[in-house]
Amino acid sequence: MDAALTGIAFVLSAEMLLLIFLATIAGVLVGALPGLGSIMMIVLLLPYIIVMEPTAGIVLTAVIYCAATFGGSITSILINTPGTPAAAATTFEGYPMAQRGEAGRALGMAAFSSSVGGIFSVLVLIVAAPLLARVAYHFGPPEYFALALFGLSMLASLGNTSTLKNYIGGAFGILLSTVGVDFATGVERFTFGSPALAEGIHFIPLMIGLFAGSELLMQAAASDAVPRLVSKVAVRLPSLADLRKVRGTIARSSLLGTFVGILPAEGGTVAALMAYNEAKRWSKTPEAFGKGAIEGIAAPESANNAATGGAMVPTLALGIPGSATTAVILGAMIMLGVRPGPALFQQQPDFLYAIFGGMLLANLVFLFVGLYGAKLFAHISLVPKQFLWGTVFLLAFIGTYAINNSLFDVWMMVAFSVVGFVMRRRGYSAAPVVMGLILGELVEISLTQSMLMFQQDVSGFFTRPIALLFFALALLGVAYPYIKSALQRRR
Amino acid sequence: MKRRSILRGAALGLLVLAGPMAGGAEVMAQDSFPSKTIEIVNLSGAGGGSDIFLRMAALRARKSLKTDIQVLPKPGGLGVNAMNYVNGKPRDGYTVMSLLPGHLISIANGKAPIGFDELVPLVRGTDDPQLLMVAGNGSFTGITDVIAEAKRRPIKIGGTHVGGIDHITAVSFIKKVGAQNPIYIPFKSGSELVTNLIGGNIEVAVLNFGEAESQIESGEIQAAVVLAKDRMSVLPDTPTSHDAGFDLNISLVRGMAVLKGTPEDRIAALETAFLKSMNHSVYQNYLSGSGLAPSSIADRQAWSAQISDMYVSIQDTLKELGMAQ
Amino acid sequence: MTDRGEDAPASPRRLPPDLADSLVILAICAGGYLLTLEFDPVPEFMRQGLSPERFPQIVIGVIGAFALMLAFAGRAGQAEKRPRLRLRIATTLLLVGTYVATAESLGMFTLMPLYCALFPVLWGERHWPLIAAYAGLLPVLLFALFVVLLGTPLPLGLLEGLGG
């Protein structure tokens, strides 16, 4: 109890409050920029973080992580471009809402859901971190393979495109994930001799190209007579009725997000997708999805922020990163001389409570920033497109280049802009391709590792109950729409 | 966790931010080396082991060189992308590269744009012995168990990517003890190896001490053997390979290098600055925190010698194991 | 995108709407499959488990199967409102492409004001003072934020060394 008080007191000092406040705002903004996300921002700040007092430094990284995860939704909603991959699922409902002139409502809901999800997961983190962390040890390659298949099974219901086209898009994404050096054998695949391609296709240029780039070209093609959105309506926040409507969704999604976050290597992106899918399934009005259903924002946003707390669980308790960003945070911890693990919980609980306190504060700060900022940001939906999209491209350029200092990545982004444009004209959605790319790598690697473990004996999977569970869920996910329509016909 | 230190840290942060801007203008007038940002090009991404090493090593070097030092990740092809980039830059001392066994492997395989003799090793920063680890509560109680079992049937060894230093370690080990060809299962990072080792999905893992420190402390993982001449002070009970009856010394060494053609005085300036930086307490703490001794640091002469030996050994090993591509 | 008219039979009344897509996708699959046959052979010691071309081939097969289903499915799916193709798409691409091409050698910020001026003009903007303000301010803002403040690595080209 003593430690808790020390930790919280640390965070509540004037300097820390100011730092957290500024860092949250900065994190939200950086998260909003396509390409630049919490990882990039933490990396850029590393030289300054390493000379900070360790507790302050790590609190800073955690705060940025939480804030940026929310920030990504802003551009998802306003320009159909996820600012961070975790916000990809938010585009499905967010952008249609913004186009209808309801940007404020969407942004406000995103802020609220993110905040609730984030706070929930930090509470879970406080109460049960060491216990929950052990879940990580039960997840090996067979479980990840099953989980990846389960994730892929959800492709069917994304957006408002046909199931078949989603599967094709997803499969295409999986194929793209094979580009590069084969993980298991070192053989180069589809690289055409280019060392840049040997590294594989990074999902950020792909995502920015398919989302932002294609949108840019779509806007180029659209007629100039766009109806002026009424600014008063555009900035209106979600109503109490909205909040009441989504409370079940937020509860379920927060749980889901926290759990997915705890699993090492899986983070907000997969969590958001799964939550979106579940929200659609549980909704009383599933046909509203794809055109601007408020639950479709509440679900992914609470899930991805819940995943931030979840991901900190194995990171702090075991020293095993729960997501890509926490891997960098872990690096920062090592540089600051902090060794995560069971020892940390025993010997430095005040440090931990400072982090918990910082994360809770961040979630609260961005709630207010988000709600207030929603009104501000919503005005972006009113910026004339001839200025907006030129700027978006420049930001996309910066975000894409900065990841690997590679102009090749920027070219890839441009190329995928064209691909995305063609796809959308033919009725294909961009998100399945991104999901396919992200999950495809996991599918192949975990399958390869599993087969090596089982010495090529497929029946080995039957010895893994968790994996079997997810296989069953995947099958259910694929079969569900058919079962549902069959049942409806029966009535 | 004192208030003052936060303020100090924040102030320092602001100064460091303003420093390059002010300092840059000032130093430009001198027209001496260095007068602009130095880049250290790394073969893997931010937050990883080599990235951390480079940042720690560069920390104090910024002060003595009075210039900004940026770590530039250029992952791809086991150092090939990084070497391509460095090769394309003028050899004026402003572009430094990290130097790890991975680079040597690529050079030996003919995939790198530069030849071995174009490397000018600068300093070594970590000398991290490879260890073989097993699960704490698993069926193996020590390296002798492992060797015995490995002779009877192929055991599952986990390490990082195929064709890299962990793979070479695993295969060399098997060859040296005369065991059956193992099933090598690649993973993407040390953390995954730790998780899967404890989870029972692999039987042995090739790891460095720092990657599994907390788990070793808690007993979930047992360090079975250290592939070095001497025992590690942090692991007094772990036998060396020699103790265990075979001779195999492999370390994950990390250092820096520049390319031939860089002016000698600049090479000397860089060497001095980095050595000084690594002898500072901040870097020393990083070393001891990772279970490494101060002897990890080596100057240009010693590092060059080791790299030359290592290159020959890697070439031989690759040929011997049939790994040459 | 016009359908492949030359493939259409004489009476196109009943032609499945996605036939063209289907054929294109199948062609891509065939191309991909051929590429997989060109992968390097696996070095002897690494030969364990699935060979590297297997997985891509399976995926290609799956896509091909889906493409066939697409040809016979009939429904086109809820396509977004299809904007007509305009010259603006090509000119925008050209502008963007040229800009990226010059970014490496000349630096991102060198020609950025020009890019910023041309973009709105291409999209129909004619208020010159507005364009001038935009083209003048945005590059400076981006430079200050990303290069000076954050130290983001960016291709600076001719401006190398500015701002530390």
Protein architecture, described:
The complex is a heterotrimer of chains A (491), B (325) and C (164). Chain A has helices at residues 2-11, 14-32, 38-49, 54-79, 91-99, 103-133, 141-153, 163-177, 195-198, 203-221, 231-234, 240-245, 247-262, 268-282, 295-318, 324-335, 342-347, 349-378, 385-404, 407-425, 431-453, 465-490; strands at 180-181, 188-189. The longest helix of chain A is centred in the first third of the chain and has 31 residues, at 103-133. Chain A is an all-alpha fold. In chain A, a hairpin with a 6-residue loop joins strand 1 (180-181) and strand 2. Chain A has one domain (2-490). Chain A is globular. In chain B, strand 1 (38-42), helix 2 (49-65) and strand 2 form a beta-alpha-beta unit. Chain B is globular and about 65 Å long. Chain B is 47% helix and 18% strand. Chain B has two domains: 32-127 and 252-320, D-Maltodextrin-Binding Protein, domain 2, CATH 3.40.190; 131-244, Periplasmic binding protein-like II (D-Maltodextrin-Binding Protein, domain 2). Chain B is of the alpha/beta class. In chain B, the strands form two sheets. Chain B has a five-stranded mixed β-sheet with strand order 2-1-3-10-4, with helices on both faces. Chain C is mainly alpha-helical and 164 residues long. Chain C has two domains: 5-73; 87-159. Chain C contains five helices and no strands. Chain C has helices at residues 19-36, 54-73, 87-106, 112-122, 128-149. In chain C, helix 1 (19-36) runs antiparallel to helix 2 (54-73) and helix 3 (87-106) packs antiparallel against helix 4 (112-122). The radius of gyration of chain C is 25 Å and the shape is flat. Mean pLDDT of chain C is 78; it is low at 1-13. Chains in contact: A-B, A-C, B-C. The interface between A and C is large, with 65 and 70 residues.
Alpha-beta content class of chain B? alpha/beta
Cα distance spanning the termini of chain A? 59 Å
**Overall body shape of chain A:** globular
Strand order, main sheet of chain B: write it out.
2-1-3-10-4
Radius of gyration of chain A (CA) equals: 22 Å
Largest sheet geometry of chain B: 5 strands, mixed
User: Could you name the ranges of chain A where pLDDT drops below 50 across 5 or more consecutive residues?
Assistant: none
Using the coordinates shown, work out and report the CATH topology of the largest domain in chain B. Answer: D-Maltodextrin-Binding Protein, domain 2
Q: CATH homologous superfamily of the largest domain in chain B, by name?
A: Bordetella uptake gene, domain 1
Rounded average pLDDT of chain A: 85
Number of strands of chain B: 10
What share of residues are in beta strands of chain B?
15-25%
Tally of extended strands of chain A? 2
Order of helices and strands of chain B: HEHEHEHEEHEHEHEHEHEHHH
The number of distinct helices of chain B, counting runs of at least 4 residues, comes to 12
Quaternary: heterotrimer
Q: What is the domain total for the residues of chain B?
A: 2
Classify the helix fraction of chain A into a percent range: over 70%
Any idea of the CATH class of the largest domain in chain B? Alpha Beta
